[in-house]
Structures are given as C-alpha cells and as structure tokens.
From TrEMBL:
InterPro entries assigned: CcoP_N, CcoP_N_sf, Cyt_c-like_dom, Cyt_c-like_dom_sf, Cyt_C_IC, Cyt_c_oxidase_cbb3_su3, Cytochrome_c_Oxidase_Subunit
Assembly behavior: Component of the cbb3-type cytochrome c oxidase.
Entries under SUPFAM superfamilies matching the protein: Cytochrome c
Residue positions binding heme c 1: C118, C121, H122, M258
Residues holding heme c 2: M171, C213, C216, H217
Protein name per UniProt: Cbb3-type cytochrome c oxidase subunit
Transmembrane feature ranges: 29-51
Role: C-type cytochrome. Part of the cbb3-type cytochrome c oxidase complex.
One BP annotation, GO: proton transmembrane transport
Pfam families reported in the protein's UniProt record: Cytochrome_CBB3, FixP_N
UniProt cofactor note: Binds 2 heme C groups per subunit.
Length: 284
C-alpha cells in the first residue's frame, strides 16, 4: 500500500520546536535529472578543455579554444577591413577628412583606439580632468588643432624622453628659480587673469609679463603653438584660472607628459585616432 501520510515516513531523529526532519526519498524524476547532469558533465570534460595539468589543461576531443575562436574573429574582421586600412595608410590626413567613406571608418576606428588607450587619462567622453589632463572637446589646442598637428602630438608624445621627436616646452619656475619675488608673481598673476577680460594696461603686472612671459605667450597673450605656449586670453585653464592656481603655476611651473604612441600603435591607428580627436573639438 502506498504511503500517503507523513507519519508513514521515518524521520532522521532531528526535531526542533516541534518540527521534525523526515527521511523521504527524492522524487524519481529529480534523481534521473541529477544522473543526467553527471553524464553531461563527464561528456563535456571529454569534448572541451577542462582538466588542469602541470603545463596546461586538457584540450578536449573537439579541439575547441575560446582564444582560438577570438583570434579567428579578429583575423576575419581584419581581412574585411584590410582594404580600408591600406587606404588609411596611403592617404594624407587632409584627404581622409574630405573622403566620406574613409572619414567614417577612421572615426569609428579612432573611437575604439581612443577608448582603449586614451580614455584612461582624457576620460571616456574626452573632457579631461582639471589640473591633470586637457579637455579635447573645447577646440583649444596647446600644440595646434590641425589634424596634422594632432597626429604629430599623438605619434611622438609630449616631453616623452624615449622619442627624439617629442613635443618639448619649458616654462621657468619663476618663484622657485628666484626670477620673481612673491609680490611680482602676484602682480603677473593678476595681469594674466585680466587678459581674458579687460587687460590691466600700464600696471606692474603688465611690465613684468612683457619682460618675462611675452617671449612665449606673445605680447597679446595669445600664445604660440610652435612653442606649446597656451593662449591666456580665452579663459580656458588646464590647471585652474583662479588667482591661487595661477600663482602656483607661475611659481612652480607646469610640465605635463603624454606617451608617444607611434611605437605602440600602428600608423593606421595613429591616423584614425588623430582624425577622431580632431572631430571632437571641431578641429582647426
């Protein structure tokens, strides 16, 4: 006779607060499902890489490899894009900007290169970080915003000792080096800040600026891209435009560094990311 009442089943002897633990057999369908998973697992470990060894894992009778699959996918896409990559390599940057198909491909590839290699500093949206990394969206370019100039900066970096063609500039530390005293530095800071609004003509700050700063930043404060001297009239500040920040810059100088990417990326990748960055800020 089939057992229908819980009292017909034995218990394990465990009881807590009137609750007893029955010793019931598992449902037959559940047991067979469990056995099926065991068989499947054994078959899987035979067919696919599974068991670790001293020098590597078992390869499996099917010879499948996730790395191999990824490599095949990469090779397939590289073969599909080979023609466009070749055109990117052989085409001048200015011509790429004027060729819709190449421009679209360069922007797409450049965006991928940027996310993988540049976003760690400049941010995923290329807005940079105040006091550390330039904003690439504001059309304000320290070394020039023409696509060829951007390509030069990316390829050879800024103050990168391992590349002889790197961008170089040297701002004196006017305070640390004893060129100006504290009062003079404050006067220059006031004048520099005024350049983006109404320049304070005839002041001590203007005189000191013309004697010490105009050689690089020009008399009008517009800067010089060939020297890497920023424009001081546009109210765009990498290290901050308040007086304390400007005083600190004049006193201690600034010298940001960017790696040279020519030895890390292919020429096509450097071109593509140059086109992409050029498009972000409107370019020049």
């Amino acid at each position: 006779m089939a057992k229908r009442d819980d009292d017909d089943y034995p218990t394990t002897g465990h009881e807590w607060d009137g609750i007893r633990e029955y010793d019931k057999p598992m449902p037959r369908w559940w047991v067979w499902c469990f056995y099926a998973t065991i068989v499947f697992a054994i078959g899987y470990t035979i067919a696919y890489p599974a068991w670790p060894g001293i020098t590597g894992a078992t390869q499996g009778v099917l010879g499948y490899s996730t790395r191999g699959a990824v490599a095949e996918d990469i090779a397939r896409y590289e073969a599909q894009n080979a023609g466009l990559i070749s055109q990117i390599n052989e085409t001048e940057l200015s011509t790429i900007l004027e060729t819709p198909e190449l421009l679209q491909f360069a922007n797409a590839g450049g965006a991928a290169v940027f996310r993988n290699n540049c976003s760690q500093c400049h941010g995923a949206g290329a807005a940079g970080a105040m006091g550390y990394y330039p904003n690439l969206l504001d059309d304000d370019w320290l070394w020039g915003g023409e696509v060829e100039q951007i390509h030069q900066t990316i390829a050879h970096g800024i103050r990168w000792d391992e590349d002889w063609d790197t961008r170089l500039s040297m701002m004196p530390a006017f305070g640390v080096d004893g060129i100006l005293n504290d009062a003079e530095i404050e006067a220059v800071a006031d004048y520099v800040i005024s350049l983006s609004s109404s320049p304070a003509a005839g002041t001590l700050g203007e005189t000191l600026y013309l004697d010490n700063c105009a050689a690089c930043h020009m008399d009008n404060g517009m800067g010089e891209v060939e020297l890497g001297a920023p424009n001081l009239t546009d109210a765009i500040w990498l290290y901050g435009g308040d007086k304390a920040s400007v005083v600190e810059t004049i006193t201690y100088s600034r010298a940001g560094v960017m790696p040279a990417w020519a030895d890390r990326l292919s020429e096509a990748e450097v071109k593509q990311v140059a086109v992409y960055v050029h498009s972000l800020g409107g370019g020049q």
